[in-house]
Amino acid sequence: MDDHPVHPPPPESSGLPLLHNLTCSEIESWMVAHGTPPYRARQLWQWLYVHRCRDLARMTNLPATLRNQIADAFVTDPAHITETQGVEGDTRKLLLRLRDGEQVESVLIPAENRRTICVSCQAGCRFRCAFCASGQAGFRRNLEPGEILAQVLSACDLWQQPPTHVVFMGIGEPFDNYDAVLQAVRTLNDQDGFRIGARRITISTCGMVPGIERLAGEGIQVELSVSLHAPNNALRNRLMPVNQRYPMEVLMPACDAYTRQTGRIITFEYTLIHNLNDGPECARELARLLQGRPARVNLIPLSPVAEFPHAPPAPEQAERFAAILTEARINSTLRLSRGCALDAACGQLRYRPL
Ligand code: SF4
User: Fold this and answer.
1) Per-domain residue ranges of the chain
2) What is the fold, at CATH topology level, of the domain defined by 79-342?
C-alpha cells in the first residue's frame, strides 16, 4: 500500500474565487469587462481543461498583463492531493484538501479500456443512509463546481490522461448541490473541456424527486442511477430516511416520468444486506415493483461500515436474488464492489470533518 503526501499542503486561502468555478461564457464576460478580447476566454479554457494547466506562467499565448490580472482576481489551484491509498493500476483512493481545509475523497477505478473516477460533491452529507459512511459525520458544505472538477484534474495528473467515465457516487447527494454538479457535468462534457461523453457520466441520487424532475428537463444525456436498496416503504424508511420525504409512491412515478421525457433507462442500485433485504420475498417484491418499467438493477453486496452492524449476503444468496429477478425478466447485474480493502467501495467513503 502506498500512503503518502503527493503534493505540498494547499496555500492559505486568499478569499479569492476559484477560476475553475466559472463557465467559459462567464470567463468571456470577465475578459470583456477587463478590456480583453472575448476569444481569450476560449484560450484560457483550453489551458484549464485540455492542457489541464494550473500555472499561469505556462499559459504563454496569453499576454503577461492578462495573466497578472487573472492572478490578482482568482485562485487557479483548486485542491491538492494530500494522501493516496492503493497502488497504480488498481483501485486508488485520493484524499483532497480544499482551500478552506475541508477534505473530500475520490476513488480511481481503472479497468480494461476504461478509467472511472468516483467523485464527491459535498463535504459530508445530510441524508444519513444507514449503511453509508459518508453521512455519519454530518454535513459541512456543498462543493463548488471547481472543487468537483479538481477531483477529475487530480485523476488526470495520476493517470496522465483524462478519465473515460465519471460517476457522482462519492460523498454527498448530487441533487442537494444541483447547480454545481450540473455545471461540472457540462464542463466534463464540453468539447473544449474534458470531452467526456454525457453517457459516460453517471449521476446517482438517493431519490430526491425534485432533482430527478429537474434533470429530465436539462436535455443532457447523462446516466441516472437511483439508490433503491429496498422494495417497499417500511424497509426503505429504515435504510434511507429520505424515503419519508419522497416515498415509493412519489419516487417511482417520478422515475417513470423521467424515462418518458428523456427516453433514458434508469439504473436502480440495490445494496444486498444479509438477512435484511436479500431474501427471496424481497427479490419477488422488487421484481413486482419494476415489472413493466424499462429499468436496470445493479445488485451490490454490502461493503462493511463500522456504524452499520450488518454483513453482505453469502455469494449463493446474492446469486439466488439475482436469479429471481432474471426469472421475472428484470434486467439485473450482480456487481462486485471494488475497493473494499481501501474503504473505497460504495458507501464507504467517509467525510473527515476539520
Ligand atoms: S448513500 Fe449518498 S445520500 Fe445516502 S448518506 Fe451516503 S452519500 Fe449521502
Assistant:
1) 19-73, 79-342
2) TIM Barrel (3.20.20)
Instruction: State the Cα–Cα distance between residues 90 and 55, nearest whole angstrom.
Output: 29
In sequence order, the 6+-apart residues with CB closer than 8 A to the CB of 122 are 139, 140, 141, 142, 143, 171, 172, 173, 176, 177
Q: Is the CB of 325 under 6 A from ligand 1?
A: no
Beta strands 165-168 and 266-272, pairing class: unpaired
Question: Any idea of the CA torsion for 147, 151, 157, 161, to the nearest 10 degrees?
Answer: -110
Integer Cα distance of 285 and 291 in angstroms: 10
Cα–ligand 1 centroid distance for 55 (angstroms):
35
Give the integer Cα–Cα distance in Å for 278 and 280. Answer: 7
E-strand spans in the chain? 79-85, 92-98, 103-111, 114-118, 122-124, 139-142, 165-168, 201-205, 223-227, 266-272, 295-301, 331-334
Q: In 3D, which of 116, 87, 119 has the Cα closest to residue 106?
A: 119
204 CA from centroid of ligand 1 (Å): 10
Q: What's the grid cell of residue 84? A: 493516496
Q: Is the CB of 134 under 6 A from ligand 1?
A: yes
C-alpha 59 chain-centroid distance = 30
Mutation choice for ligand 1 from 126, 167, 173, CB with most ligand atoms inside 8 A: 173
Do residues 302 and 273 touch, judged by C-beta distance below 8 A? yes
Average pLDDT of 251-272?
97
Options 105, 173, 223, 269, the catalytic residue: 105
Please say if 105 is a catalytic residue.
yes
CATH class of 19-73: mainly alpha
Kindly state the average pLDDT of the residues 151-180: 96
Please tell me if the CB atom of residue 172 comes closer than 6 angstroms to any atom of ligand 1.
Answer: yes
Q: How far is the CA of 319 from the centre of ligand 1 (A)?
A: 26
pLDDT tens for each residue of 228-261: 999 999 999 999 999 999 999 999 999 999 999 9
Question: For the segment 45-102, what is each residue's pLDDT rounded down to a tens digit?
Answer: 999 999 999 999 999 999 999 999 999 999 998 899 988 898 888 899 999 999 999 9
